[in-house]
Amino acid sequence: MTDALKYExxxxxxxxxxxxxxxxxxxxSVLVAALFAQFxxxxxxxxxxxxxxxxxxxxxxxxxxxxxxGAFAIGHEYRYGTIRVTLPVVxxxxxxxxxxxxxxxxxSVLVAALSLAAAYLVALLWPGSTLLDDPISDDTVVRVLIxxxxxxxxxxxxxxxxxxxxxxLPGAIVLLIVxxxxxENILAALTLIPALNRFQDETRFxxxxxxxxxxxxxxxxxxxxxxxxxxEGGAIFGGTALVLLVLWAVLFRRRDA
Amino acid sequence: xxEATGLTKRYxxxxxxxxxxxTVRPGAVTGFLGPNGAGKSTTMRLMLGLDHGEGQTLxxxxxxxxxxxxxxxxxxxxxxxxxxxxxxxxxxLRMMAAGSGVPRSRVDEVLEVVGLTSVAKARPKGxxxxxxxxxxxxxxxxxxxxxxxxDEPANGxxxxxIHWLRSFLRSYAASGRTVFVSSHLLSEMQLMADHLIVVGKxxxxxxxxxxxxxxxxxxxxxxxxxxxxxxxxxxxxARGATVAxxxxxxLAVTGVEQALVGDTAFxxxxxxxxxxxxxxxxxxxxxxxxxxxxxxxxxPDAAVSGGGATRAGEAR
Lengths: 257, 316
Prior knowledge:
heterodimer; B: 6-stranded mixed β-sheet; 12 helices; elongated
């Protein structure tokens, strides 16, 4: 298992994209925090929006970026045929899969924490920033920050499981972006049609939408769509990731490499 | 030492590898031959547990999965150009070394051995097939394994590269290690291998020393020229030989030794103008023996064309 972890860590660290994606995540966090610090006069909740890069309102950028890291972890193996290099080094498939999951999980948590830290420094040090005067309760801030790390982690796991299931990197990346941005939005929009209106309540269980509640401070005003609570949402999204991972694990052991 | 027993692989209803059992011994280069689609690559993937199928393969008594840090026991080259296009050759090997308990210094050693030192830090995106093969070879050698398994390692190598590979593998085997190598370059295999395992349509066709394989071919014969050919042919047939008349009137005699042909001529009082032994090339023997199992057979002319260099073997 140690050998598998060493292999996976070296794989991750010798990939240029790993560092590009880390840099992008930190840069986006800093940029959003700076825009908030400069232009927003601290209404309640603006602090967490600034720190999480608007993750509760738009698509969580750090989540998508770490979803890519996850997808690359197994997608590259099939895209470049390196699965036939990797398995001879780590022939026990369960160990390889576990090593991939652990290394990507730790990395995505680190990147999420680093992005938050960078954004926090901007909120703290930006000249004229009033973000830290936000009357929001400390408990809520801590809850959203933990939620952000978990959301990023789950995105990474979903990306990896999709790439492992599809064995097709471009397909997995498209699905990772299209699922939350297009599929769930269309499903939600469909319930605005009167005939489908009675399903509107169920849209809160859509996995990516539910997961996003991890970083939300409550329903937005004027949003007709119901939401689940943050931890419930995290459980739905995390459960989805777990199901996908288990499915991938079963197929990974059974399929020819 | 590799011991394979009952290797079988089915795709749907089609049998790609059909109960192959063989032993690859240390101290010799064992060639793995077969027409396209005979199941050579599938067999190698089965042996390493990459593909699932029936049967088992033991490397010095252990299944591949049971080997601790397998790269230290078995070095395999299955596919050229299996690397990430922007991960340098050195990092690719460092990754493999990290997962195998092989010291980093060994990476630069193997890069030196295969002649990739000058491009060790470059992106391998632009590597030619030959350079990709060299990187694959470096990876196979990384853990100083006792067993080497190479699938078509000569593919894409230039003549110098092939020459180097041949002497390298021969000396690797000579040091008491096991070398199992597939190739479709028959002239190359004739120079490199000591033992042959020949498969066709997934079945074992021959498991024999190269010399015996070539000997068994009908192209191997005693060649006689004589003004009294007809008389000599009769005398030879009386002694149990099979005699064929070549296009230029020479007799190709099989089934008896060269000396016996000379003695028979002497006894019959037939003058001889030429008496020689013709050894079939590996290519001739291979095409003859795999002919029946050839899955994607072209026209007979196409099957033997392009073998100009090895046909010189007939003169020997």
